[in-house]
Write a structure and sequence with these properties.
The complex is a heterotetramer of chains A (about 325), B (about 180), C (about 280) and D (about 425). With about 325 residues, chain A is mostly helical. Chain A is built from 10 helices and 2 strands; from the N terminus they run αααββααααααα. Chain A has one domain. In chain A, strand 1 and strand 2 form a beta hairpin. In chain A, helix 7 packs antiparallel against helix 8. Chain A is globular. Chain B has about 180 residues and is an alpha/beta fold. The longest helix of chain B has 14 residues. Chain B has a 5-stranded mixed beta sheet. In chain B, strands 6-7 form a two-stranded parallel sheet. In chain C, helix 2 crosses helix 3, helix 4 packs antiparallel against helix 8 and helix 5 crosses helix 8. Among the domains of chain C are: about 45 residues; about 130 residues, Rossmann fold (3-Layer(aba) Sandwich). The N and C termini of chain C lie far apart (about 50 Å). Chain C is mainly alpha-helical. Chain D contains 20 helices and 8 strands. In chain D, a hairpin with a 2-residue loop joins strand 4 and strand 5. Chain D is globular and about 75 Å long. Classes of the chains: A mainly alpha (about 325), B alpha/beta (about 180), C mainly alpha (about 280), D mainly alpha (about 425). Chains C and D meet through helix 5 and helix 10 of C and helix 1, helix 2, strand 1, helix 4 and helix 8 of D.
């Protein structure tokens, strides 16, 4: 197996085809995750979940999406027109863009990398886009002209600040151990030694907790806490704009799971022949997504101040300590 | 419950303190009732609450009633409760209908019993009884702009007649 | 023309008419529904427009029928049975109708679960207005269907006085099975009649807030001061005070009277411009 | 929103901001919100406050309660409940129905505690009639009242957990609720609003197999409660959300007239089942769980413990169910037995008269309290000697308890407001009646 250089680039037509394939796979994956969530939640709650629309309910997400697309497009009078319209697009765009760096395999046949791009800044790229996606929530909530949306937007902003730092610090240990920012390099580094989830277990936990907060999934779904804020930042959104937010949430789940799988769970490496790589990667992503769903079925929601204190008083010191210990160990060994 | 002689003693005690506060007593079905002068209702309830021998500190319920053909038409009932002795005592203030568009008035006891807040508003809402000194006497269950006191006996129950095939022609606007 | 009963029963609105006779049967059924308001060419046009024409429309109505998100909206006793509907034993999620959305903008189906009081009626109407087209209303239980046993001063005698109700479900309260049956009936209706012609007729389509084509005051429920639902505010610093004390209009007109009222109002001052097709209004 | 941008039709309906701030009788927003000391400081810094309107359509208000909440950031500075959105005029409607026809109305007040409603109304009518119900009827009433208490607490617990975000609890609670409703359906034929209690006793004896089903339920339920505890009690987030939240001191609760689990959670062991002996609860062995702090955690624990105690009572009731008639043998009140209608002309006439006219109740007034799942359900009944009540009033615990909500919430977070409201467990049908 050849380790790819950072900055390795294919022919441009390959890149186009590659991006289309990745986009198609993920866009096909998101509705499946939607259905998986509803089915799994059903099983957690002693019921069936969707099973009438199409065979085994497989067409349920299709029906949802077509319905959302055919809903009326509507803007409340009080909303700020352009911002209101671009906010959901922003969320979807940034989530899609982040998908590009998730590696499903190394360079195959020496000319096609099984990933969108392998950027030298690696994980920083994901953080940059993650921050942009919060603008989507913030703008959407603020420009709706509704007080519930506004509160949801404020909460999402506060959540971003509290969790982005811990998330970054949690990955720093892995980056130090692998000696690279590129996800491909990090995944390859784990093939030789062990999965980083073992030496960096604390980092993995912090990353996952922060990942839950980043994706606004329960128990950190404060921006759209439906018991308090009706639907939070997307209270005024209906139709496919609401659908965009909805899908973006699931895409971000894929992104966070993908990053976690690549950085902690050995990426595409697994037993069996090399061509199983992408399947291994997908399997790891799905396992993590099931974790997301399991947590949603089980845990209550945190309160706003508890969320803040968890972020600043627990996760941040822990992550810093983790980085320090890792740094010392890396230097010593 | 205080028994019938005990009730007379309570009435006498209140009357000796506040002249004419209790105008009568009733004891029926094992339930004791003090008929209070509406003008002195605060004194009566305050006495029953604060006097250590009685200490009816818990106001279980306040409700109005309309005894339409009877002469003092309205009444406000206060269901008092002494928790340690598990004794209930009902104080009933009879209010005359001032006639025309006037509303019967009574002193509010919200400062004595904070629990009376919503319940007095409810009595006001349904019977038009004005509680003087209530901090926020507005309608509570009916819409703010509702006209009329719906639970008075002379207020129609309302609703619509049920329309059957035989009667549908007599109901205007139903068939065209 | 003689119409055979068997034919009438066997027809599904989903099917394309197979013969002129079948089209005629449909015309007659439509005329029955319209009580003879349309005749001749108008009637033909009406029926033509009611028949599903394209595959796209079929797909669209299939999707709409299979993905009915109810609004999280409970009124009284029936709300508890409505919650049971998603519970383990009944499980409407099998039909894709378990995603209760708290925001009316994201809901497709309003289940009126319980008695509608005169104080609540404007709010219900406003929630309905806040929902986006296409939208459906289920009236669950006797109270919201007809006032039920509560024939008194406080209860609106049937929610269809101020809302277009699609399905009435009998019961007090209806069992969750009955509610699911109602939802399945609604699904059939959605599959068959995507363009909601009768709503257009009753001016019930496209009733988002702030875009009412008819004159204020002629509606069964007035817009002014109607109690806001779910804290949706439309201005800056709109306080609670006015909402508390502003006059709230109450539906006093029955359905037909209300319709007459706004037909009169429309004669006075016609609505500005033709209404765009339901479901495709752009906000640009 | 600028009024001039609207269609001219709206000109007479659009309010300017000044008009919006000042209502018809000239009350400003500050005055509407109130004038207690905390509120006055809030008014002075009015520009810092953010008023949101929760409800009448809000997922967490357990019905159509409307709360005007003044927020400073996320902190609740003031709160004002507005209710009446399901006001149904039941009390008025009852005045137009004969006594036994009024029972279906009464039970639709608090739609999770229909047996308590019925027990209070039938008790008041029986007080006025000086009617003693037979022991079997009393025990059947207790059996159903306790089943109803578990049912109500289950719904309360499930929806509370849903409000807190622990969604699965809802399904688990409703699963058990359905088991209870099966029992109701078995004894009366209806899931909700069973109209099982009758003036003079209960409407029908329990069917064959009911006792076995109840025993099965009693064997099942403690294990299920243990499962709820396993899911919630050791959950750190749940503990953090519940503990030390919404504390109101016991004395204040008593002043506010609060009863039921809310009061007991604050440490006051007040339970009408123990002190009032209208129903033979004295024959049963059960404990009254009380809390110590009076926070939401205590409220939750008290409810769970009450469910266990109710299971104990149900077991005893079904084991020691006395033999005999299930309804009093007072033919002027009680319908004659079904089999007599075919053989006895007098019974047929009696039946006809009772069904068409109802029975007459001698003039008088009575207040009859019952301990229901939310506190004291008390019916105040005025009879004027006719077959219809002259005045029915329900003292509903949700209505009175709701007054404590403001004190529970002010100074806390919005999320705590939701938790407090969930733990207050109001039923809007009972509040608005």
């Amino acid at each position: 197996m050849v380790a790819a250089d950072v900055g390795f680039a294919e022919a441009s037509w390959i890149m186009v085809v590659k991006s289309l394939v990745i986009f198609a796979v993920i866009l096909g994956l998101v509705p499946m995750i939607l259905l998986l969530e509803r089915k799994l939640l059903g099983r957690f709650q002693a019921r069936y979940g969707p099973n009438r629309v199409g065979p085994k309910g497989l067409l349920q997400p299709l029906a949802d999406v077509v319905k959302l697309l055919s809903k009326e497009a509507y803007k409340p009078d009080a909303a700020v027109p352009i911002l209101w319209a671009i906010a959901p697009a922003l969320v979807i765009l940034s989530a899609t863009a982040t998908l590009a760096i998730i590696p499903f395999g190394d360079v195959a046949d020496g000319n096609v990398g099984l990933y969108g791009i392998d950027v030298s800044i690696g994980i920083l790229y994901a953080f940059a886009f993650g921050s942009i996606s919060f603008y989507g929530l913030l703008l959407g909530g603020w420009s709706s002209g509704s007080k519930y949306s506004f509160m949801g937007a404020m909460r999402s902003a506060a959540q971003l600040i509290s969790y982005e730092i811990s998330m970054g610090l949690a990955l720093l240990g892995v980056i130090m151990m692998a000696g690279s920012l590129s996800l491909v390099d990090i995944a390859n580094a784990q093939a030789d030694t062990i999965w980083y989830v073992i030496p960096q277990f604390v980092g993995f936990l912090i990353f996952m907790v922060a990942g839950f907060a980043e994706t606004n999934r329960p128990p950190f779904d404060l921006p759209e806490a439906d018991a308090e804020l009706v639907a939070g930042y997307n209270t005024e959104y209906g139709g496919m704009r609401f659908g965009s937010y909805f899908m973006a949430e699931y895409m971000e789940m894929v992104v966070v799971s993908g990053i976690a799988a690549a950085m902690f769970l050995g990426g595409w490496h697994g037993p069996g022949p090399d061509w199983l790589g992408p399947i291994w990667m997908l399997a790891k992503i799905m396992v993590l997504i099931c974790l997301f769903i399991w947590v949603r079925a089980t845990l209550p929601r945190l309160r706003y101040d508890q969320l803040m204190s968890l972020g600043w008083k627990v996760l941040l010191p822990l992550a810093t300590l983790n980085v320090l210990v890792t740094a010392v160990l890396v230097v010593v060994t | 419950m205080p028994d019938a002689p005990g009730l007379e003693l309570i009435a006498h005690e209140i009357n000796s303190r506040h002249e004419g506060a209790i105008v009568g007593t009733a004891f029926e079905h094992g339930q004791a009732v003090l008929l209070a002068d509406p003008g002195l209702i605060r004194e009566t309830l305050g006495f029953l609450r604060d006097e250590p021998a009685h200490a009816y500190r818990f106001l279980a319920s306040v409700h109005g009633a309309d005894y339409l053909p009877a002469a003092p038409r309205f009444a406000v009932h206060y269901e008092l409760l002494n928790m340690p002795r598990v004794e209930r005592l009902r104080v009933k203030a009879l209010l005359a209908d001032p006639g025309d568009d006037g509303l019967p008035e009574l002193d509010s006891v919200v400062d004595l019993f904070p629990t009376a807040d919503f319940q007095e508003r409810e009595a006001h809402d349904f019977f038009g009884i004005v509680f003087r000194g209530h901090p926020d006497l507005r309608r509570i269950l009916m819409p703010e702009d509702y006209v009329g006191w719906p639970q008075r006996r002379d207020f129609p129950i309302g609703g619509e007649p049920v329309i059957f095939t035989a009667t549908e022609d007599t109901v205007p606007g139903w068939t065209r | 023309m003689e119409v055979e009963r068997t034919k009438l029963r066997g027809l599904s609105p989903l099917d394309r008419p197979r013969s002129p006779a079948e089209l005629r049967v449909r015309q007659l059924r439509a005329r029955d529904m319209l009580r003879g308001d349309l005749e001749g060419a108008d009637l033909d046009e009406y029926v033509e427009s009611r028949v599903l024409t394209t595959t796209l429309e079929r797909a669209q109505s299939w999707a709409r029928g299979n993905s009915l998100f109810p609004a999280t909206f409970g009124l009284a006793c029936c709300a508890i049975e409505m919650m049971s509907m998603v519970s383990a034993r009944y499980d409407t999620s099998r039909f894709g109708a378990e995603v209760f959305r708290a925001s009316p903008r994201q809901a497709d189906m309003l289940i009126l679960s319980g008695r509608v009081s005169i104080k609540m009626a404007p709010v219900v109407r406003r929630i309905y207005d806040q929902m986006l087209e296409p939208k459906w209303v289920l009236s669950m239980g006797a109270c919201s269907s007809s006032g039920g046993m509560f024939a008194n001063y406080a209860v609106v005698q049937g929610a269809d006085k101020f809302l277009p109700v699609d399905i009435h479900i009998p019961g007090c309260p209806p069992r969750p099975e009955a509610l699911i049956y109602g939802i399945l009936k609604l699904q059939r209706k959605v599959f068959g009649d995507p363009d909601l012609g009768w709503r257009e007729r009753y001016r019930a389509g496209g009733t988002e807030e702030g875009r009412r084509p008819w004159k204020a005051g002629a509606l069964p429920v007035e817009r002014v001061g109607s109690a806001p639902a779910a804290g949706i505010v439309t201005g800056h610093g709109q306080p609670g005070a006015a909402q508390l004390d502003a006059p709230v209009g109450h539906p006093q007109l029955t359905g037909h009277e209300a319709r007459d009222a706004y037909e009169e109002a429309e004669e006075d001052e016609p609505a500005a411009g033709p209404r765009p097709a339901v479901g495709w209004r752009d906000d640009a | 929103m600028n009024p001039t941008t609207r269609a001219p039709d709206y000109a007479d309906t659009v309010r300017t901001p000044e008009e919006l701030g000042r209502d018809a009788i000239g009350r400003t927003e500050a005055q509407v919100i109130g004038t207690s000391p905390i509120e006055r400081t809030a008014i002075e810094r009015e520009e810092e406050l953010f008023t949101i309107n929760m409800g009448p359509h809000h997922p967490a208000t357990h019905g159509v309660l409307r709360l005007l909440v003044s927020l400073e950031g996320e902190v609740v500075r003031d709160l004002k409940p507005v209710m009446g959105y399901v006001h149904t005029g039941i009390e008025k409607s009852c005045e137009d129905k004969s006594y036994w026809k009024a029972i279906p109305f009464i039970e639709r007040m608090d739609y999770l505690a229909y047996y308590s409603n019925m027990a209070a109304f039938c008790g008041a009518a029986e007080t006025l009639l000086d009617l003693e119900i037979p022991p079997r009827a009393a025990w059947l009433r207790i059996l159903h009242l306790e089943l109803n208490r578990i049912h109500s607490h289950l719904v309360g617990l499930g929806t509370s957990a849903l409000d807190l975000g622990a969604i699965s609890m809802f399904w688990y609670c409703f699963r058990e609720r359905d088991t209870i409703l099966d029992l109701f359906e078995m004894s009366s034929g209806q899931r909700m609003h069973t109209r099982y209690f009758q003036v003079g006793g209960v409407a029908e004896d329990i069917p064959v197999g009911f006792a076995r089903k109840v025993r099965e339920f009693c064997a099942l339920m403690p294990g299920r409660i243990a499962e709820y505890e396993a899911l919630l009690d050791h959950n750190e987030i749940f503990l953090q959300r519940m503990k030390d939240v919404g504390i109101v001191p016991r004395e204040r609760l008593l002043e506010l007239g609060v009863t039921g689990p809310l009061l007991r959670a604050a440490g006051e062991p007040w339970d009408l089942r123990k002190v009032e002996h209208a129903l033979p609860y004295a024959d049963f062995e059960f404990d009254v769980p009380i809390g110590t702090v009076g926070d939401n955690w205590d409220r939750y624990r008290v409810r769970l413990a009450e469910m266990r105690e109710s299971v104990r009572i149900i077991e005893q009731a079904v084991d020691g169910l006395p033999e005999g008639s299930w309804i009093a043998d007072e033919r002027h009140v009680v319908l004659p037995p079904r089999h007599e209608l075919a053989t006895s002309m007098e019974a047929l006439i009696q039946h006809f008269k009772l069904v068409t006219e109802g029975f007459r109740v001698p003039p008088g007034e009575a207040y009859f309290p019952v301990e229901g799942p939310r506190g004291e359900y008390g019916v105040f009944l005025v009879a004027d000697g006719s077959a219809k009540p002259a005045r029915v009033h329900m003292r509903d615990p949700s209505f009175v308890n709701l007054q404590a909500l403001r004190e529970m919430c002010v100074g806390g977070y919005v999320a705590d407001l939701i938790a407090n409201l969930a733990m207050l467990d109001p039923i809007l049908g009972g509040i608005d009646r």
